[in-house]
Design goal:
Blueprint (H helix, E strand, L loop, with lengths): L1 E8 L8 E8 L2 E6 L9 E4 L4 E4 L1 E6 L37 H8 L2 E6 L7 E9 L5 H4 E11 L2 H6 L8 H25 L11 H10 L5 E5 L2 H14 L3 E5 L7 H4 L6 E3 L17 H8 L4 E3 L11 H10 L4 H6 L3 H7 L16 E4 L10 E6 L2 E5 L1
Parallel strand pairs: 1-4, 1-5, 6-7, 9-10, 10-11, 11-12, 12-13
Antiparallel strand pairs: 1-2, 2-3, 5-14, 7-8, 8-9, 14-15, 15-16
Helix pairs in contact: 4-5, 4-6
Length: about 375
Amino acid sequence: MLCIKNGLIYTMAEKGPFKGDVLIEDGKIRRIGADLEIPEGTEVIDAEGMEVYPGFVEAHCHTGLDGYGIGYEGRDYCELNNLVTPQLRAIDGINPFDPCFKHAREAGVTCIGTGPGSADVLGGTFAAVKTVGSRIDKMVVKYPVAMKCAFGENPKNCYQDKGDTSRMTTAALLRNELFKAKAYMEKKEAAGDDVQKQPEFNLKLESLIPVLKKEIPLKAHAHQANDIFTALRIAKEFGLDITLEHVTEGHLIADELAGEHVPMAVGPTLTHATKFELQNKSWTTPGVLASMGCQVSIITDAPVIPQEFLPLCAGLAVKAGMDEFDALKAITINPAKHLGIEDRVGSLEAGKDADIVVMTGSPLKVESLVKYVFVDGVMVHQN
């Protein structure tokens, strides 16, 4: 048993901190409150003068799929020979020994949503994983969490000589695959146990059935306003759940997005505008959307921005006008909700995983230091 004592605790389940203790047992938060009775033999860490947060969560990245300092040999985030690859699984490509996992957890990032990139119209499934471990199967919090799809410049740029040269083509390819998957699913259901009537097995179409059944959402890469609306349009046509990823021009259409009630992951913003669809990127975007009532997560899209700078990105959003509590939610409970794992991580509450960060000050301030990081109640970093 372990107790983090006398810290200023930000649970993220409620607004405002309080001074208290966190009691940990068997990898879970057992109790949290002021002046807890500590069982004899409990290891105590004195957090007097320090701040205690849930482990930071990132809703969208490619960590473990793009080898650190390797190049092509470690580049496993996209299949560049086929526009439509829903059958690809992030867990088959993630390398737990990628140094980026260590960099992330040392900065307090304890859980991430990682998966395929955005070259393909349909790229495959994302996984929610802890940033500690040597075997991906044991790091998984939830799999699958979403099916990646992409709109905008990336598919047409990557496949301009292989059949995709316009936004209309991208949308048509996605619709076509969803229609085929729907017909395949309906034929399977109608056949029941009659093997003779079952359609020929198709791994691509099988992979889309959880999307059609709303067991997982489409995870839609969309920067530009028109691409965001196309993603929403297609989701409505097929009655699908959807999350919006990047949402670079979200601040320009915030009034429209506020009525959609879909999770949004905003970023990466700490980068140069390397393509036309990024020309309107702004640190104001997450704050504007949050002020309109949208569920906003802030992302690094690592390795686009190193994952250890996730708290810095939240701090820069505050500098641009975002409410501090909204910014903290954007790197804790909101991304947990975005990934469908808020029952495990994202806030400090009894029964949840003991993923905890102890800091000298607010993570929104660059001078604050990470002193301790715990994942499942085990100290994985001490400074």
